[in-house]
From TrEMBL:
This is ABC-2 type transport system ATP-binding protein. Residues 315-325 have a biased composition (Acidic residues). Gene3D superfamilies: P-loop containing nucleotide triphosphate hydrolases. Belongs to the ABC transporter superfamily. The keyword ATP-binding applies. Keywords: ATP-binding, Nucleotide-binding, Transport. The keyword Transmembrane helix does not apply. Coiled coil: none annotated. Residues 5-235 form the ABC transporter domain. Residues 302-342 are annotated as: Disordered.
Length: 342
């Protein structure tokens, strides 16, 4: 079985800006994969390239072996997308919206109605089935986007910040539901700003910054890349920072408190205490703090310049006079989808 997602040197240029820079990424079938990165890292551009809303400028992108442009229909039919923006037809009841979506992906009308009911129940808004999108609360709208992504029974579910701005209850409901879907075999690609969410749900995460892949690792592997801080309270104020061994990457003193940055706090603390006592310091208390995944993330995603430096004629085709994106959908279907009608 080919990977659920495979990109090789994927590039997207918006005029002078390289939103994706030679991005090579593989997501295996059945994985729960997280895409993390600060605002503007290129996460949505990556997703939009996979679903055919953005035309790539270079490289390759395949979904279950189907080229996202040459085999657009097969690739697109395999994906359920819950986008970040609310792009839902406002003139029909939400049940109709779901039926249309299923029909658009080739599900017969009779089955589309059953599927619509089933997913509405699954996301918990079946009692709202006859209402229009605009009448739903923000949290219900998020649920509907998920229902719409699920109505085609996709093999790959893409969730672009599904829990942005939702309350704690809904966040937990969504986590439970997507975990269930993944257990049932659906491959999941999730973008999020909540590190806790990625840590909790994902088998592996890719950290992106400025259009590039910075690293791919399991959340545990990432955490191991961090350092620990041992904070020691001393009985009296030392004269300056004590000279410690190479295990201490950085030592800072503030009054009678000492902070020592080390690789592994647990195994280094006894040695540090011995060394300090040998120097005549009396220890009052000690505390070890681990680097959070969030700190590691911040560390890995410091800014760099990603403006296109060559003359860039290739990028011109995608850019309007004002530098804005003018990715024309190449089929009426794509246009419908972009408008959120499908
Ligand atoms: N249609 C467009 N035209 C021009 N530039 C764009 C367009 N869409 C995105 N960009 C630029 O491409 C870069 C990547 O944006 P993208 O939305 O993919 O990032 P993101 O990682 O999803 O960010 P966020 O976390 O804020 O949603 C940004 O600098 C953005 O301004």
């Amino acid at each position: 079985m080919p990977p659920a997602i495979e990109t090789v040197d994927l590039v997207k240029e918006y005029g002078e800006l390289r939103a994706l820079q030679e991005l090579s990424l593989t997501v295996e079938e059945g994985e729960f994969f997280g895409l993390l990165g600060p605002n503007g890292a290129g996460k949505t551009t990556f997703i939009n390239t996979l679903v055919g809303l953005v035309r790539k400028s270079g490289g390759e992108a395949r979904v279950f072996g189907y080229d996202v442009e040459d085999d657009y229909r097969q690739a697109r039919d395999a994906i359920g997308l819950a986008p970040q923006e609310f792009n839902v037809d406002r003139f029909f009841s939400i049940r109709e919206v779901l039926k249309h979506k299923a029909g658009y992906h080739g599900v017969p009308e009779s089955e589309a109605a059953d599927r619509a009911d089933e997913v509405l129940k699954r996301v918990g808004i079946y009692d709202k089935r006859d209402e229009r999108f605009d009448w739903l609360s923000g949290g219900m709208k998020r649920r509907l986007l998920l229902a719409r992504a699920l109505v085609t029974e996709p093999d790959l579910l893409i969730l672009d910040e599904p829990t942005a701005g939702v309350d704690v209850q809904l966040r937990h409901d969504l986590w439970e539901l997507v975990t269930e879907l993944n257990d049932e075999g659906t491959t999941i690609l999730l973008t999020t700003h909540y590190i806790e969410e990625a840590e909790r749900l994902c088998d592996r995460v890719a950290i992106m910054n400025e259009g590039r892949k910075v690293t791919v690792a399991t959340p545990d592997e990432l955490k191991q890349r961090g350092t620990d801080t041992i904070a020691v309270g001393l009985e009296s104020t030392p004269d300056g920072a004590p000279e410690l061994g190479a295990y201490a990457h950085e030592t800072t003193v503030s009054g009678d408190r000492l902070e020592v940055r080390v690789d592994d706090g647990g195994s280094t603390a006894p040695r540090l205490l011995n060394d300090l006592e040998a120097m005549g310091h009396e220890i009052a208390d000690l505390e070890i703090t681990r680097t959070s995944l969030e700190e590691i993330f911040v560390d890995l995603t410091r800014s760099e310049d990603r403006t296109v430096t060559r003359s860039g004629t290739e990028s011109g085709e995608d850019t309007g006079d004002d530098g804005s994106e003018v990715d024309a959908p190449s089929t009426p279907e794509r246009e419908r989808e972009q408008e959120g009608v499908a």
